Q: What sequence folds into this?
């Protein structure tokens, strides 16, 4: 999955609530779990990104 698809998924699933998760946070979360020099994340990295979003939403 690339950053564009990740951002679209987050918008479509209403993860961005402008309180706990901001638009800029989406890119930061993706970059934090993506290896340096790569453009794509695999399934394990994807689940790590989702877990970080869930932690922010739930509190």
A:
């Amino acid at each position: 999955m690339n950053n564009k698809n990740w951002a679209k998924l987050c918008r479509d699933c209403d993860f961005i609530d402008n309180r706990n998760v901001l638009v800029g946070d989406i890119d930061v979360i993706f970059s934090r779990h993506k290896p340096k020099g790569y453009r794509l994340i695999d399934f394990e990295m994807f689940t790590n990104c989702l877990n970080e979003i869930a932690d922010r939403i739930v509190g």
About this structure: The two ends are 26 Å apart (CA to CA).
